[in-house]
Amino acid sequence: MRARAAVAVALAGAVLAASSPSQAATLAVLKPKRGPVALVIQGKIDTGDSIRFAQLLLALDEAKLRPAMVALDSPGGYLGESLAIAETVRRRGIATYASGTCASGCFMIFAAGTKRLAAKSARIGVHTAYTGAGSSDRGTSVMASYALRYGVPPLVVAKMIATTAPNIAWLDRQDIKAMHVQAMR
Q1: Which of 45, 75, 78, 81 has its Cβ near the most Cβ atoms within 10 Å?
Q2: Distance of CA 2 to the CA centre of its chain
Q3: What is the CATH number of the domain that holds 155?
Q4: Which residues form the signal peptide (predicted)?
Q5: What burial class does residue 129 get, using C-beta atoms within 10 Å of its C-beta: 0-12 exposed, 13-18 middle, 19+ buried?
Q6: Cα–Cα nearest to 74, from 97, 52, 95, 51
Q7: Quick count: other Cβ atoms within 10 Å of Cβ 33?
Q8: Where are the alpha helices (DSSP H) in the chain?
């Protein structure tokens, strides 16, 4: 009984810490009564989100819980933060699930999933890296390199490179199929 209480306290603290109102993205843990634990990233990915994501994972580790997937609904955000989260997802072998819109930096996290799932209504999009001053060739090169390492087909990487931010190239059925994304209800 005490172990369960400790797990509940740890998860509650992690969720509260991860839901700081000063941050743009909402990070949360979903622990259904039955079934696997999932992490949720919702909203714009901002400075510090990769650290908060890592803190959530540490809290789950302490509770001896392993997330089965990361559910994503984000327009993207800071590339460095997105890539740090993507690398953690990849290193830990976590599946990804696009539940709504997943574009820009969110796409990088989605692509890092060892298994990729998406709601039938999900919209997944790509474009070049962008700074406040415009497109970033260096950032786009980094994104393309990571995407290829994650197994993103060259066809999709080409769309990323060809679509200047803030425009978005929404992936079509052919792209989704080439990425081996499993459609969910």
Answers
A1: 45
A2: 33
A3: 3.90.226.10
A4: 1-24
A5: buried
A6: 97
A7: 4
A8: 2-18, 49-62, 79-92, 105-112, 137-149, 154-162, 173-178
List pLDDT tens digits, range 57-69: 999 999 999 999 9
Tell how many helices (H) and how many strands (E) occur in the chain: 7, 10
In angstroms, the first-to-last Cα distance of the chain is: 36
Cβ(102)–Cβ(124) below 8 Å = yes
Confidence (pTM) = 0.87
Number of domain units in the chain: 1
* Helix/strand/coil percentages in the chain, nearest 5: 45, 25, 30
pLDDT at residue 84, as a whole number: 98
On the question of pLDDT at 2 being above 50, the answer is no
Asked whether the beta carbons of 142 and 129 are under 8 A apart, the reply is yes
Domain boundaries, position 47: 2-184
Q: How far apart are CA 6 and CA 27, in angstroms?
A: 21
Q: What distance in Å separates the CA atoms of residue 127 and residue 104, rounded to the nearest whole number?
A: 6
What pLDDT is attached to residue 8?
39
